[in-house]
Structures are given as C-alpha cells and as structure tokens.
Design brief:
The protein contains 19 helices and 22 strands. It is an alpha/beta fold and 595 residues long. The longest helix is centred in the N-terminal third of the chain and has 27 residues.
C-alpha cells in the first residue's frame, strides 16, 4: 500500500491543479464587427426598402448582380456583384500568396483565431441568427440549432483535438523495415475552394473555413446566390478575427455570383468542397477532372426515419416532427421518409398529426411562429407537385399546419407542414429529395422489409432508427446503405464533430467534419527515415547489387521466406541460407579484390 500512496497523492494533486486552471478565464480579445447595415432598418434608403419581385423568364445572371431579399417578407436587402472568371482567379491568387505565409503559422496562433471566433459567436448569437433568419426565412430557434450549436461544436472539437490529428502519425514498420521509422505527415494542400448551399448560410461558410484554416490552408468560398447578403456579413466576422491574430490579408475570401463564378473557382483551386444537388455535383466533377483536384461532394439525401413497435410513441413523435420541420424541412440531413411498424402505425400517425396541426408558419421575425419560410420562390410549387402526385396515386393528407399573417408578395414562399399516409414507393414524394416540411408515413411489417424499403433510394446520406431494444435498432441501422446513422435519435451524428459527415450513392462521396474531414484538407505524405542514422543505413546486399550475382534470385527466395514464412523453423532455415549466401558472396568479392 505504501507504494501506491505517492501515486494517488500525485494524481489527486494533478486533478486539483487542472481544475484550478479551468477556473482561470482565458484572455481572449474581443472583435468589433460593423452590423449597422444589417440591423438598422430606419437608416435604409428608399431604394432599399421596397418589396422585391424576382424577375420571371430571365435569369439574374444577365444583370451581373446577385439580388438579395427576405423570403419571408420579400423586402429588398441589396445586391452583390457576380464575379467574372478573371476576378475569381485574382481572388484565388491573392489567397494563394496569403497561404504561403499562413502555412508557417503555429497551432497556438490558429487556436487563438478559433477562440476569438467562438467568443464573438457566443456573445452575438441573436445577431447571427437574425441575419440568417432574414436571408433564408428560418426561425430563430432553427437558426440557433443549425447555425450556432453546430459551429460552436466544431470549434471546440478543433480546439481540443485538431492539433493532435494534424501532427505526424507514426505507423508500424513491417518486418523488412525494422531499422526504419515510418510515419504519415499532413501538410496543407494550398487553396481550398468551397461552393456552399443557402440553407444554413452561417454554418456552411464556417464549416469548410474552420477546417481549411486550422490545417494551414487558405480558402475561397462561393456563397449561394440565395444567401449572399448574410454570407458577406458573416465574412466580416472572419476578417476581424483573422486581423486580430495577425493573419495575412486575403487568407479567406467570400465570393458572390452564379454558375460561371463557381466554374471559375473549381478551375483555380487545389481542392473543391461542394454542398448542393447531384446534378450540379456531377458538373463540378467534370470541371475538376480537367485539373485533377480532389473533390468532396455532399449532395443531399432522402433519409429514412424508422420506428419499431416497442418505442415511447409521444417521445419519438416529437423527434419525428422536428426531424421533418427543422428549417422548414430545408435540411440535407432531414428525415424525408417515415416507416412505422404496423402495430403502432395508427397511434403514431395520430400523435404526429396532432403535433403538426399545432404548428404555425409565418415571417419568423414578425411574430411567434414555429416554422418559417421556404427560401426559394419556385420551391413551393415543386413541393405542391410532389404532394399532388402522391394524392393522385392514393395518398391521403391527414394533417396540415396553419399560416400566420403573410405579406401578399411572400405567400409563394410558405408551405404548410403536411402529413400524408397511404404512401408507397411509386410516388415521387418517396423517391425525390423533398427539402420541405412534409411527412410521408408508410407502414412496415418486419425488420427485413423496412431495411429493404430504406435502401430503395438513389440517395444514401443518413438514417434514424428507433426501438426499445438498442441492439435491434443498431442491427437495422447497420444494414442501411448510408454514410451516417443515428440510433434512437435524429441527426446526433452531426453534433459529434469528431465524426465524418457524408454519404454514398447520389448523396455524394468524401467526408467533411471529423478527423477524416480535417485531414482531407491536407496533402497526406508517407515518410520513412532511418531509426539509428548514421549508424545503421540501408545497404543493398551483395547478391543483388549490380551486376546481379548468379544466386541473386536464390537469395531473394530465402529472404522472403525468412521474413514472411508461416513456420518458425522454415524461417530460421531460410535465414541461415540468407547469411550463407551473403558470406559466400563476400568471400568471392574478397578473393577478387586480393587478386
């Protein structure tokens, strides 16, 4: 016991010291970000206060301007330039020069950058969420869940583990290289390009930016033409934090524009990350093939939400509605297909219908609404077409939410939360990505059947499986062909930022987030060096030196068996033969030298 007392005391003292250090607040500087033009409505000019009517029959791209407006109210927000290919190339070149400097930065400097961002985000949650709400129509709660929490989780994970996963990783050397050190090094790729979607404008910018900057890269981000106003404001936050740590200018660039702008970005960078539709993702791949740069594609999903008969129905029903209505259903990892066991089908449907009927949709900053707007004007028409197709094929609408007061010009930007039953896989609603507040509910009989149904999709991003038996839920989830799975929960995988995020099939490939996403921003280099340099060096054995000896192949045969033989006695016998051949060869070489 006397031996253990010092260890126990030292461990306890160490724990006390760590706890006391946690009580000392970090000295993190604050940054000032001008937000007067995104919040002060009273200071707007008359030109910037009118109701915006998007042009029909022609694209904005012809105007060389990205027009911005609030989906929930149609109030005009302003415009940003659609950058030309030459302007994009110039921004990338500036970022490339900045990256050469930043690549030499310390992890201490990079962590300081993250802490400054984290402090600003926590202190300005309302501002960040209001800007997201105005530009995309989501509620403040939806913005907090999808923009703030996810980003803060990523920052804290990078602070605690980021450096560890970017340091050289030592690997086993194998039998033939026992005298070596083998490791993997992670070097910055250069300029990371990102083309991101509009549904979470804050997080979709910060997600690739944080990984790129922490791994020593620069990054150029093309924001969606449907969320450029918020994206350019969030860029100010990044600029202020970079300036506070003395980072080079142009290390991060946010660019605006349309397809031409995105194509130019793909052609100029060292890696591209794309979040969007499968159709555009395939175009990105074709363009990236010209320069053979790595590509990460996150292309949406059609996630299955599976509920077995042994669950707490009221508990799971609440999760199901949140899974479908989060951000008005405009969520790439949202639940879009609901499979409920036949024994609880009626009870579950009734519970979900009751909740959905209580949901009200309206302008999120104009009243207390549960759900906001649909960001894209034409998307409401697509949602209605999906519902109509399902009804024509036998589906039944059993519940819909309500609308609050909607401005006349914004009516097309709202779609009521809708529950349908009697759906099947012949309906477009169960095959195409919905990206809206619709819950199609289908009955299943056995676990084998529901696995088959869940896999009957061209998408493969994620799934959620609920059962009173955790073993059963895990067994079902393991058989679903997708990139992420939540057992007795929904979307919890994304809140664990140590995990990679991405899908298969038409949901794309490659991963962001987690160790895999961080290292995907790196040049992965394998390195081997001598363990005991300069005392032990690699020397080519005499039998296989040029000119190769007559018994060179015999030597190789024996060497292979000595290293990899399955029987220890065969390996020893082969080793003796190796030593004999080397000895004989040395003797011959010695005689020739004496002669």
């Amino acid at each position: 016991m006397a031996f253990w007392w010092p260890i126990i005391v030292l461990t306890f003292a160490y724990a006390i010291c760590r706890f006391l250090l946690m009580l000392i607040p970090l000295n993190v500087p604050s940054i000032d970000v001008d937000a007067s033009d995104v919040l002060d409505d009273a200071s707007r000019t008359q030109e910037n206060s009118f109701i915006y009517i998007p042009p029909r029959g022609r694209t904005q791209q012809a105007d060389r301007k990205v027009q911005c407006y609030e989906p929930a109210t149609m109030k005009y927000l302003g415009y940003f330039p659609a950058l030309t290919p030459a302007e994009v190339e110039e921004r990338v070149e500036q970022a490339r020069k900045a990256q050469k400097i930043w690549a030499k930065s310390s992890f201490k400097q990079r962590r300081r950058f993250l802490r400054i961002l984290l402090k600003y985000i926590i202190e300005h949650q309302k501002l960040i969420c209001e800007v997201s709400s105005r530009d995309t129509g989501k509620t403040m709660v939806d913005a907090s869940l999808g923009e703030i929490m996810t980003t803060c989780e990523k920052i804290t994970w990078l602070l605690s583990e980021g450096e560890r996963w970017l340091k050289p990783e030592y690997r086993s050397r194998g039998r033939s290289m026992l005298h070596k050190i083998s490791k993997v090094e992670f070097h910055p790729l250069g300029v990371i390009g990102a083309i991101v979607s509009w549904n979470y404008p804050f997080h979709n910018i910060f997600n690739p930016m944080l990984a790129a900057i922490f791994s020593g890269n620069s990054v150029v981000i093309k924001v969606s033409e449907h969320a450029s106003w918020s994206g350019c404001f969030y860029f100010r936050i990044i600029q202020a934090a970079l300036a506070a740590v003395g980072a080079p200018e142009n290390l991060v660039e946010v660019i605006t524009g349309f397809a031409e702008t995105g194509e130019a970005l793909v052609s100029s960078v060292d890696k591209i990350i794309f979040v969007g539709s499968p159709g555009v993702g395939k175009m990105i791949m074709r363009n990236a093939a010209e320069t053979l740069i790595p590509v990460t594609l996150e292309l949406g999903g059609k996630d299955a939400f599976i509920v077995c008969e042994d669950v707490d129905i009221p508990h799971v029903a609440q999760i199901a509605v949140r899974a479908a209505l989060q951000s008005s259903g405009q969520n790439c990892a949202g639940a879009e297909r609901f499979y409920i066991h036949k024994d609880i089908y009626t009870s579950f449907v009734n519970q979900v219908a009751k909740i959905v009927k209580s949901v009200s949709a309206g302008p999120p900053l104009a009243g207390r609404y549960d759900m906001g707007a649909i960001c894209l004007q034409e998307h409401s028409d697509k949602l209605q077409n999906l519902v109509d197709d399902a009804v024509d094929k036998g589906a039944e609408i059993i519940a819909r939410g309500s609308f609050g007061h909607l401005d006349e010009g914004a009516v097309d930007h709202f779609f009521p939360p809708t529950v349908l039953i009697n759906v099947n896989h012949t309906m477009k609603l169960m095959q195409e990505e919905t990206f809206g507040p619709i819950l199609p509910i289908m009955k299943f009989n056995t676990d084998e059947e529901v696995v088959k149904l869940a896999n009957d999709s061209r998408y493969g991003l994620g799934c959620a499986v609920f059962s009173g038996s955790q073993w059963r839920a895990k067994e079902i989830a393991s058989q679903i062909h997708c990139g992420v799975a939540a057992v007795n929960d929904f979307a919890s995988t994304y809140m664990c930022q140590s995990l990679p995020f991405g899908g298969v099939k038409d949901s794309g490939f490659g991963r962001f987030a987690g160790v895999e996403g961080l290292r995907a921003c790196c040049l992965v280099k394998s390195v081997v060096e001598d363990r005991w340099w300069p005392y032990i060096k690699t020397k080519i054995p005499k039998p296989i030196q040029y000119p190769v000896a007559e018994n060179g192949f015999e030597f190789q045969e024996s060497l292979v068996e000595a290293l990899y033989g399955l029987n220890i006695w065969d390996r020893l016998r082969a080793l003796v033969n190796v030593l004999k051949i080397i000895s004989d060869q040395n003797s011959v070489a010695g005689r020739m030298k004496n002669d």
